[in-house]
Model the fold of this input.
Amino acid sequence: MAEKIVLDSGVRIIIEPIPTLRSVSLGIWVAAGSRLEAPQERGISHFIEHMLFKGTRRRSAQQIATEIDAVGGFMNAFTSREYSSFYVKVMDQHLALAVDLITDIYLDSTFDEEELERERSVVLQEIRMVEDNPEEHVMDLFHKAMWKGSSLAHPIQGERRQVARLERELLLERWRQNYHHREVLFSVAGNFSEGKLLDLLDSSMEKLSSDPIWPKKRPPKNHPGLEIVEKDLEQVHVCMGVPAPSATDPKRYSYLVLNTILGGGMSSRLFQEVREKRGLAYSVYSFLSPYADVGILGIYLGTTAEHLKEALTVVLSQMENLANEPVSEEVLRSAREQIKGSLVLGLESSDRRMSRQAINELYFGRQIPVEEVMEALEEETSEDVQRAAQEALRVENMTVVVLGKASISHIPPPLRGMMRKR
Done:
C-alpha cells in the first residue's frame, strides 16, 4: 500500500516500495492542464510540457536524451485537461540519475529562445498531425460541441493560431506560477529505499510549494445536438456521448460496468453487433472520460457513408436494449471480472502503479485500495447498470459529431431532429 509524506511546503510524496521489482518509476504531477488555461493561453500547458525537455542550465536537450538512453530507461510527459505529468522509469540502480533528471527539467529549464521557436514548429506539426488523424480530430470536435462555452471544450494541444502567438515571457511566467506553486505531488513506485529517495529529493523540495486545492472552475453545461463536419475522407468518423459521473462520484462504478458491457472490449455489445455480426466497422468502442466535477460516456465509430445509417441504428438499438432490459448475471459477472483483470494486470508494472497512486491522490486525496474497488464492483447489480443506462443513454442528452463525406440523409431518424448549424 502506498504511503503519503507531506512536507512543510505542502508538497506531497506518494511512495510505494516494491522490493520484488527491478525498476523504479518517478513522476511529478501538477494540477496544470488545458482546462485551467485562460482563453488567450490555449495550448500553453502542452507547450510548457514540450519545453521542459529542451534544455536546463546543466543539460542540453541532447544531453537529457542521451543520459536516459544510456541507462536503458525512458522519460516522457503528457498534458491532460486537468493535470500534467512528467515521469521517468529506470532500473532500480539508477534512482539517483532518475531523480536528478526529472527534477532538473521540472525546476531548471531555460526556455531557450532558439529552442522555443524550433519546438513551436514541432507543436504546430503535432496539431496538424491530430487534424490529419480522423479518430483524434473527431474527439476534439466532439469536446468542442459538447462543452461549448467551457474550458473543457478546447483541444489540449491548442489551436495553431493560438500556439503561434504564445510568447516566451508568458510561458516562463505560467511555468513558475502554475508548475512550482500549484498543487504539486511526487509519485514513486518500485524498488527503492525511502531514506535514499528523500535525501535525493531534499534539495529540490525547497524550490516548490503546493496549494492542495484545485483551481476554481465552473462545471460545464452539456450541449446536446448533431453536427456534421464535411471532410474528404475514406471513412466517416463518429463520436457521440452523454454526461457521466465525475471521477469521484459514487455512481462511477455503475457507469464503469455499463461502459464495459456497451463497448469496452471484444465481447461488448457494440463490437459484436456492429463489427462481428454485420461487418459495418473495423473500429467501434465506448469510453469513459471522468473529470473532477463531470464526466463523459462516449462512443466512437468509423465506417463508410453507405453503412453509417445502419451502424448508428445498431448503436442506438443497443443503447435502448440496455436501458429497457436488465443484463443477465452472467454478463454482469463477466464485466466485473474484465474490469478487475484489467486493473490488477495493469499494476504489474511500476509505472502503472506510480500513475494510479498519483491520480488517486489528485482526485480523492487518499489511496483507493484495489480491494475497495473490487468490493464496490461486486455490489453493482443488474438493476444498478440498467438505472445508469436509463439515466445516460437518452438521445435527447446526446452530442453527436460526424466527420467525413456524409449528409443528413446518412443519419437515422432518431438523430436527424438534433441537427444544428455550425
Q: What stands out?
A: The first strand starts at residue 3 and ends at 6. The two ends are 50 Å apart (CA to CA). The chain has a mean pLDDT of 95. Residues 24 and 190 are 4 Å apart (CA to CA).
